[in-house]
């Protein structure tokens, strides 16, 4: 599959990526548990149908030592027994924030309360930032038609 547009070859696309990556760096300093970001990034990418990001975050997570069984269950996290309470709170928040227009209230009160109880203010700020950035990346890649499957961990380091 060929991309419909090579966004990252354009000067503006490169600037967008640079600034999005700066936001990711800030979020990475929030003190979240090491396994959590890839779970959230993977789930939002699955919801948004972004094959490029789904491929990337699955492979990055495995490369960082995550159990493939847990990654395979991210799409069915509610029925899975392999996630902690904090991971469940983060996945619920990621789902609702990704589907923000699908609910009358945006983020349900119980989902927000679970996230507030599981994370410090800095961790929550980092989590919200990661969710916002992955949704932006998903949209960039889906619109550009970025193909999935060829990502190698560390490729963009």
UniProtKB/TrEMBL annotation:
<dbReference type="InterPro" id="IPR029032">
    <property type="entry name" value="AhpD-like"/>
</dbReference>
<protein>
    <submittedName>
        <fullName>Carboxymuconolactone decarboxylase family protein</fullName>
    </submittedName>
</protein>
<dbReference type="Pfam" id="PF02627">
    <property type="entry name" value="CMD"/>
</dbReference>
<dbReference type="InterPro" id="IPR004675">
    <property type="entry name" value="AhpD_core"/>
</dbReference>
<dbReference type="InterPro" id="IPR003779">
    <property type="entry name" value="CMD-like"/>
</dbReference>
<feature type="domain" description="Carboxymuconolactone decarboxylase-like">
    <location>
        <begin position="17"/>
        <end position="96"/>
    </location>
</feature>
<dbReference type="GO" id="GO:0051920">
    <property type="term" value="F:peroxiredoxin activity"/>
</dbReference>
């Amino acid at each position: 599959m060929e991309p419909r547009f090579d966004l990252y070859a354009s000067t503006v696309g490169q600037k967008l990526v640079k600034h999005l990556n700066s936001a990711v760096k800030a979020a990475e300093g929030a003190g979240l548990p090491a396994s959590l970001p890839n779970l959230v990034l993977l789930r939002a990418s699955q919801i948004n149908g972004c094959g490029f990001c789904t491929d990337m975050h699955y492979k990055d997570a495995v490369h960082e030592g995550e159990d493939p069984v847990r990654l395979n269950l991210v799409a069915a996290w509610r029925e899975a027994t392999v996630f902690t309470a904090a991971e469940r709170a983060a996945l619920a928040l990621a789902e609702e924030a990704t589907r923000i227009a699908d609910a009358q209230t945006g983020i349900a009160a119980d989902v927000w309360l679970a996230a507030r109880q599981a994370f410090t203010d800095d961790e929550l700020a980092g989590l919200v930032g990661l969710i916002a950035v992955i949704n932006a990346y998903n949209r960039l890649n889906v619109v550009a038609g970025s193909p999935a499957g060829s990502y190698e961990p560390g490729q963009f380091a």
